[in-house]
Amino acid sequence: MGKASRRNKVKKPKKVRIDFVDRPFEGLAFEPELVAMREIIPAATLPVKTTDEYGAEELLIVTVLPGMVAATRREDGMLLVAAQTVANSGDLSLDIADRILKGQQLGKGDSLQSTDPVPGPRLQDILDLDYATEMELHSDFNFWVDPAEREKSDVQAAIAQSAEQLIPTEHVDNVEGAFWCRMQREFVRWVRPEPEAQVLDALARLHTKRELSFDGGRFVGAFRAHGLLIPVFELDAGMEADELAEPMAAFTPAFEEALADTEPLNPDERRARSGIISRQVTLR
Q1: For the chain: N or C, fewer Cβ within 10 A?
Q2: Mutual orientation of helices 196-208 and 267-278 as an angle, nearest 10°?
Q3: Residue 132 to residues 29, 47, 50, 192, 246: CA-CA distances in angstroms?
């Protein structure tokens, strides 16, 4: 190719960069639920509604969709938008908002394979924040299809097959953000909405006093996801979710007292805090 040809070659426009947001769901009342749906819950749905400006549509944010697609509209007209997809930008709130807005154009039975978002509105901008919502955990992916379709034998078989790989997960009754799961052992992962530094301080205070445990559970570490800290407790072998409600409820006041303590950490507490951080894993 000659110099003239190279000079006349049309350059593709540069992709606009989306800045990284450390805590993308901050300001949403269901921030812990979205973080959990992104990182620790295999199957769940969260009903939301867009503002009048964005169509006032009731839809479901879901953990994942078949083939890791971005969004799909069921045959009954309900729009499902995935929290988990293959590709994401630096701002997960913008990503999910982009999937919602593009998903609103889908017809019944259609899916949006992926999106390539550009800077624009975020969930905090397009959702009706006064809309009453509650996340629902599922033991399978029955929410992928509308109720009228679920009785078909081929649909039941597909749902059952997809559920085989799910990690059993349940919410601990009356303990916000606490999720029991069974892997090789049983654990509870507790999504905390407070600032990360405040949670770390509380964990360090209780650890130093040897009070960072409850009946049947012992603290084994914490990981960080989308700006929130998630302490993890290993449970007695075979412990079920319904056995956790009482001991965790009894432990919660001590934890909340430690969260409210604003005194500087003493040397032992600072060492405990450093130890917790050294074992911490960050998920994005």
Answers
A1: N
A2: 120
A3: 10, 8, 12, 21, 27
